[in-house]
């Protein structure tokens, strides 16, 4: 009986140490993703033939998913992970705010990217698209319209396909940057990732819409690059 008591007490003392390590490791991985997202957006916005300026000026949010691998998209639902950064304010017109963690899922992504590591960038073009992503999982092409985005700083982005789309998607693989269709894939808040970075009560909504959390230092490159590319929402 005494042995059982001592054993139980020992397990209680060990529990915090046992469960703290994985949380720290998970946080480190998510922080790395934030830093990688900053590197990806910086490199893409420095490409001469990159995202048209008028699209950047109209985007409410930008989703960056670095180094997504086809191997991640297996039966059972593994996924690519990254961040979404939105302009602050209830109307998404202010400066770029703190990033929330997001996940991209779907077999169609794996079919398109082949065996190479691929970076994805998704522009969220209106308030409805941004608001829907803060609350729940969104199926691209069904819950929200999506199109392969045009590229080139001076490219025309006022065709019907682009004007109607709530989201415009791009990919970069082996240095090649292009618009890509992500219809059939899903994009959702990564709740575990948000808690790892900001704390147990953090959600995409409280991070982005309510601006309750300060952006981590590792996100400064990402936010500063977006702010430099497009400081204010253009009508």
Give a written overview of the molecule.
The protein has 235 residues and is of the alpha+beta class. The chain has one domain (25-229). It is 40% helix and 20% strand. It contains eight helices and nine strands. Strand 7 (167-173) and strand 8 (176-179) form a beta hairpin. Helix 1 packs across helix 6 (191-198) and helix 1 packs parallel to helix 8 (220-229). It is globular, with a radius of gyration of 19 Å.
For the CA atoms, what is the radius of gyration? 19 Å
User: How many helical elements?
Assistant: 8
Main sheet summary: 9 strands, mixed
The shape, in one word, is globular
Low-pLDDT regions: 1-22, 72-78
Structural class: alpha+beta
Average pLDDT figure: 83
Say how many strands there are: 9
The CA-CA distance between the termini, in Å, is 74 Å
**In percent, how much strand structure appears in the residues?**
15-25%
User: How many discrete structural domains?
Assistant: 1
The helix/strand series, from N terminus to C terminus, equals HHEEEHEHEEHEEEHHH
Helix content: 40-55%
Topology record:
Blueprint: H1 2-45, H2 53-58, E1 61-68, E2 80-86, E3 100-105, H3 107-113, E4 118-124, H4 127-135, E5 138-139, E6 146-148, H5 160-164, E7 167-173, E8 176-179, E9 186-189, H6 191-198, H7 204-209, H8 220-229
Parallel strand pairs: 6-7
Antiparallel strand pairs: 1-2, 1-4, 2-3, 3-9, 4-7, 5-9, 7-8
Helix pairs in contact: 1-6, 1-8
